Amino acid sequence: MKVLYLEDENLLGRIVKESLESRGCVIDWYTDGHAARPALEQAAAYDIAILDVQLPGEDGFTIGQRLREKFPRLPILYLTARVQAKDVLTGFEAGGNDYVRKPFSMEELLVRMQNLVNMRENDGGNPENQHPAPAAAPPSSASELYEFGEFLFDYPNLRLHHRPPSGAGKVHQLSHREAELLRLFVRLRGQSVIQRKRILLDLWHDDGFFNSRNLDVYVRKLRAMLEVDPTVRIITLRGVGYRFVVEG
After folding, report:
1. Of 120, 98, 119, which is closest to residue 109 (Cα–Cα)?
2. Rounded-to-integer distance, Cα 108 and Cα 24, Å
3. Which of 55, 80, 160, 245 could hold 172 in an S-S bridge, CB 3.0 to 4.6 Å?
4. By the 8 A CB rule, do 128 and 158 touch?
């Protein structure tokens, strides 16, 4: 995997570069957009771009947006210490396919990277399949809206709306893979078991190690979104799969 990496923190940059190289990746690391300009102009040569958001001069979102416009097939992964939902949405609107919050583990970074590269290969590189639809997306079909517990899941627009009785809910903008996994869970709710192998083959077309780790990451992310409603649960059946439960 050939990686374009922009990070201005020297210690973190060295750690990530050396860790990825030890796993067989080829890393071109730059500390700012100006130094990376020649590589940015030839970014089609890379399998993925990893961009720190808070870069000196031109920020990562701006660089990512320019890359998206010029190289629509290039997966873009943002690294950010920002945790507000609006910052995450800004990243998706700026062409990002996924993000990792700092501090992060190398295992998580590798899983996210591999997932994005696999998505590009499986989806033919179509950016519409890889990141959330823009705000101007067409209205959703009623058949693709799923209601369960306190949630409304808008699959076509990759949005999960939390609608508590208090009215103070929020909207989660999902990645393509998160939406695919949630749709599978919702459609199979009530089943005694949803086989782990089935999920991997349905969503990744492969049940290898990297994709299995990807699945663990996405299940954790969905659980974090759903935990505000205790009537909705993803139950792990160790060694077998999952059960998606909606009580009431």
Report:
1. 98
2. 16
3. 160
4. no
Contact 8, 56 (CB under 8 A): yes
**Beta carbons of 61 and 94 less than 8 angstroms apart:** yes
CA–CA distance, 238 with 175 (Å, rounded to integer)? 26
Domain boundaries, the chain: 2-128, 142-246
Burial 206-235 (b: 16+ CB within 10 A, else e): eeeebbbbbbebbbebbeebbeebeebbbe
CATH domain 142-246 topology = Arc Repressor Mutant, subunit A (1.10.10)
User: CA–CA separation, 82 vs 98, rounded Å?
Assistant: 14
Contact (CB, 8 A) for 117 and 47: yes
> CA 24 → CA 18, 110, 112, 115, 220, distances in Å?
10, 11, 16, 16, 27
Instruction: Return the CATH fold of 2-128.
Output: Rossmann fold (3.40.50)
C-alpha–C-alpha distance, residues 13 and 198, integer Å: 38
Query: Looking at 16-30, 74-88, 196-210, 231-245, which range is the least confident one?
Result: 74-88
Q: Is 119 in contact with 139 (CB distance < 8 Å)?
A: no
For residue 99, is pLDDT > 60? yes
| pLDDT value, residue 85 | 60
- Asked if the model's pLDDT at residue 132 lies above 70, the reply is no
